[in-house]
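Structure in, sequence out. Go:
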């Protein structure tokens, strides 16, 4: 019930942003390059790539594009993410770390997400952008928000069109985009314009429906997603039933890029009960974006914590009850390390609204609900996985094969009652080593043909 509520919110956002051009921005995506770039888009791209917004007190200068790359890195194409397990952040004496908290997710389809970041910290793209401009990714520490926004403000006003874009200063670009000189606005108004411009650019970033899987669905007349409020498992069953019917009639069509191995993997992916291997993947990775937009504990945080502190350590980690918890918590929003015993990443536990969340069950107390949210993280999209490795919020798995194998291992632990507060869907996964290759073959049918030089 709770997950379906998130799905309803997300499907509304997906429909609302599916076609439109936002504030004059050309909607990239669908593997098409616009004939011309609007003034708003030129401004947005420059803001997105401007590393001067980083703190001058750090040893790196980051921009939004530092962690969300496409073809800028010679290592290869990305789907608006980077190559690190955890993105690098500027080192600060007050917080001597090189890595951020988690792996950088793709920002494709962010406009459809009810909550953003793996832990659901933000509920809008504007909040996300504002939090990033004044956050650790840009080198800023807690309490330095005013300094961060003052720096953005001064850069916008004093820019002389050097370096990143010699064609025009920010003041000139703002006049072209919005018909207003930033100098006539208050600092808060300038920051709001900057934030909205970047957020609206991110809204234009959409994955295409031109993958081998999408062609397979279209060729065989399959449903693209669940009905409103429908359990995704029912969608999976209907898809499998229709595929079986077409196979019996020898009428099933396999388009280019979707072979017999991918078909076998798809069957495991969509199967949630009955005989044979049960992937139960569709329960959380629901088409068309292959996410339910919700939060689940799949055992990944426990695995990382136990790897550092020893098997069984996460099971006995002391986590406060709802009345005593101070959330978000620095202790429970941290990468595990020997240097900080007892520190762990509990994900959505830090931000879940105990009273208003659609995930809360009718008969749950605050303590029961908060406990169930331990180490729950947002379900990532499975589209374009070949361009987003390494995987999981930890970035700890470098190949699709290792990612599938790890979920197989954790599902066995969950069935044995050895994953603390495991999501009920995890125990429903029952696959073998023989299923790894077909599942990976299917996952690769969700890749677009991302190519250097194209606009997305």
């Amino acid at each position: 019930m709770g997950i379906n509520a998130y799905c309803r919110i997300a499907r509304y956002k997906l429909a609302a942003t599916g076609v439109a051009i936002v504030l004059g921005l050309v909607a990239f995506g669908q593997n098409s390059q616009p004939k011309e770039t609007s003034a708003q888009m030129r401004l947005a791209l420059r803001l997105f790539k401007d590393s001067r917004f980083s703190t001058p007190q750090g040893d790196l200068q980051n921009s939004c594009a530092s962690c969300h790359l496409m073809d800028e890195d010679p290592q290869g194409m990305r789907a608006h993410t980077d190559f690190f397990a955890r993105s690098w952040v500027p080192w600060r004496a007050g917080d001597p770390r090189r890595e951020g908290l988690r792996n950088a997710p793709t920002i494709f389809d962010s406009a459809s997400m009810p909550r953003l970041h793996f832990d659901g910290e933000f509920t809008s793209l504007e909040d996300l952008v504002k939090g990033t401009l004044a956050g650790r990714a840009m080198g800023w520490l807690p309490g330095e928000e005013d300094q961060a926004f003052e720096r953005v403000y001064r850069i916008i006003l004093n820019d002389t069109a050097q370096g990143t874009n010699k064609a025009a200063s920010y003041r000139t670009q703002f006049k072209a985009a919005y018909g207003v000189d930033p100098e006539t606005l208050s600092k808060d108004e300038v920051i709001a314009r900057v934030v909205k411009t970047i957020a609206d650019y991110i809204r234009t970033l959409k994955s295409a429906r031109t993958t081998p899987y999408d062609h397979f669905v279209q060729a065989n007349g399959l449903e693209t997603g669940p009905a409103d409020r429908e359990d995704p498992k029912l969608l999976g069953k209907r898809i499998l039933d229709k595929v079986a019917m077409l196979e019996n009639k020898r009428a099933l069509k396999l388009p280019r890029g979707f072979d017999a191995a991918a078909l076998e993997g798809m069957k495991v992916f969509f199967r949630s009960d009955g005989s044979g291997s049960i992937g139960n993947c569709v329960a959380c990775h629901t088409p068309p974006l292959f996410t339910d937009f919700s939060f689940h504990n799949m055992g990944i945080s426990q695995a990382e914590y136990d790897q550092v502190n020893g098997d069984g350590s996460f099971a006995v980690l002391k986590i406060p009850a709802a009345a005593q918890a101070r959330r978000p918590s620095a202790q429970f929003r941290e990468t595990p390390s020997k240097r900080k015993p007892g520190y762990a990443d509990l994900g959505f536990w830090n931000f879940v609204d105990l009273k208003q969340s659609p995930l809360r069950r009718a008969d749950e107390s605050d303590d029961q609900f908060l406990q169930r949210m331990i180490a729950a993280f947002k379900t990532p999209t499975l589209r374009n996985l070949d361009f987003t490795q390494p995987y999981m919020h930890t970035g700890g798995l470098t190949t699709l094969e290792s990612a599938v194998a790890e979920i197989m291992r954790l599902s066995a632990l969950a069935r044995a009652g050895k994953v603390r507060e495991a999501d009920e869907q995890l125990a429903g996964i029952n696959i073998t080593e023989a299923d790894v290759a077909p599942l990976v073959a299917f996952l690769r049918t969700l890749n677009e043909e991302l190519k250097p030089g194209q606009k997305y």
